[in-house]
C-alpha cells in the first residue's frame, strides 16, 4: 500500500472547512469564508504507518501546525470502498484529527498485510525472529523489538533521532574493528596533526601537545589495538 496514490490528493467538505489529504505528503485544513483572517493550516505531515498483527491499520500524519503546547496530528483510517474518497473527518480530541479514507485498494483480505511488502532480507529476518520466539529463545518483548527494527528499516516506522545517531556511531565503530584499520587511521591523523602544527608555527602560534607527545607510534598503536579489542 505504500506505493498507491502518491500523486493524488483528496478533498472533503465539512461545515465551513475544506480538508485536503495527500497520501504520503500531508493533511491540510482551509476555512471556506471571506473573512480576512480565514484559517488555513497543516494538520499533519506524513510520518509513519500504524502496524499491528502484521497489518497496516492506518497512516499517522504528525508535526502539523502548532496548537497550544503541541503540534496538530492526524490519524488516517483505511477502509474498503468503491472509489478513492475521504468519507469522514472528525476531531476526537483537541488538535488530534481523524480521517476515514475509503479506497478499493484495501478491499482484498491480504491487501494490508505487512509481510508481503518487505524485501526478502527483511522477510528472512522476520522468519528468524518467529523461530526464536517459537523456540522460546527470546521473549515476546524481544520479538516485538525485532519487528519494530524491521519496520523501521523498511521505512514503515519513523526512526528516532537517537537511533539515527546510534546507527552512525555503530557505522563508525565498524570502521575500526581491526588493529590494522586503527593503525592506518592513526597514521593519517598524525600527518594531519603535523600539517596543522606547521601551519601554527608559520603564524607564530605555539602548539602545546599533551605530555605523551613523544610516545612511540608502536606503543600508541598497541594501546589503540587493545582499546579496539576491549
Distance between the termini: 46 Å
The arrangement of helices and strands along the chain is EEEEEEEEEEHHHHH
- Helix content class: 25-40%
- Which CATH class of the largest domain? Mainly Beta
Biggest sheet features: 8 strands, mixed
What integer is the average pLDDT?
82
GO cellular component, one term: Golgi apparatus
Organism: Semnornis frantzii
Keywords: Disulfide bond, Signal, Transferase
Protein name: GNPTG phosphotransferase
Describe the structure.
By secondary structure, this protein is of the alpha+beta class. The chain has 2 domains: 1-110, Cation-dependent Mannose-6-phosphate Receptor, Chain A, CATH 2.70.130; 114-189, no CATH class. It is 36% helix and 29% strand. The protein is built from 5 helices and 10 strands, in the order E-E-E-E-E-E-E-E-E-E-H-H-H-H-H. The protein has helices at 120-134, 140-154, 161-175, 179-202, 217-229; strands spanning 10-14, 17-22, 26-31, 40-52, 55-62, 66-67, 70-71, 73-80, 85-93, 96-103. The strands form 2 sheets. An 8-stranded mixed β-sheet has the order 1-2-3-4-5-8-10-9, with no helix packed on it. A two-stranded antiparallel ribbon has the order 6-7. Helix 1 runs antiparallel to helix 2 (140-154) and helix 4 (179-202) crosses helix 5. It starts with 9 loop residues before the first strand and ends with a helix. The relative contact order is 0.09.
